[in-house]
Prior knowledge:
The protein is an alpha+beta fold. Helices cover 45% and strands 29% of the residues. It contains 5 helices and 6 strands. α1 (7-43) packs antiparallel against α3 and α1 (7-43) packs across α5 (229-248). It starts with 6 loop residues before the first helix and ends with a helix.
Amino acid sequence: xxxxxxxxxxxxxxxxxxxxxxxxxxxxxxxxxxxxxxxxxxxxxxxxxxxxxxxxxxxxxxxxxxxxxxxxxxxxxxxxxxxxxxxxxxxxxxxxxxxxxxxxxxxxxxxxxxxxxxxxxxxxxxxxxxxxxxxxxxxxxxxxxxxxxxxxxxxxxxxxxxxxxxxxxxxxxxxxxxxxxxxxxxxxxxxxxxxxxxxxxxxxxxxxxxxxxxxxxxxxxxxxxxxxxxxxxxxxxxxxxxxxxxxxxx
Length: 250
């Protein structure tokens, strides 16, 4: 994130990271809690006192079993359902942030030819990439000839859903000319002008394929592609190994 995102996006980023962390921390927390609790009871001779009162060891270990079972179920819910879902949402938010902040990929003092039928040059970038100074836009290849636009500054607004950048140019001129007609040349001055630029060349157009940690259990079991079935099976067994570890540690 190279510029300020919304509060909801930042909150979702933190929430989507938590399931992947809790998968490891819950079993360890269960183990440490049981060790500390039973160790304290043993040090204070509370276990001996409970045994002297006729309370058997099975009854003493019953809360430990309930805690282990609860930890197992929570870890299982996260590994099987919540963690893959959170990872898919996390990757989706990351892709949206990259697309919405696509103006940061335009570097100053470099002739950028990645735009369709257009060359862009910027002298300086300010305000976190949203303010450009010294803008040079050369557009050619059209039937009406070529067009060159110079502007003192521009405010950049990203339109990720439409796949374009909206430039609000200030204090500039537009030069139009045709190669096959030397007498055709016009200059138009403007105080403000809006100019849309397609940015398909700067973003990934193909849909992103889900990785194994993002897939559901059903998708992992149905994966029979060459070279992918083995890794999918490993991910499938890993999701059930962590909850089993949570129940076995205590």
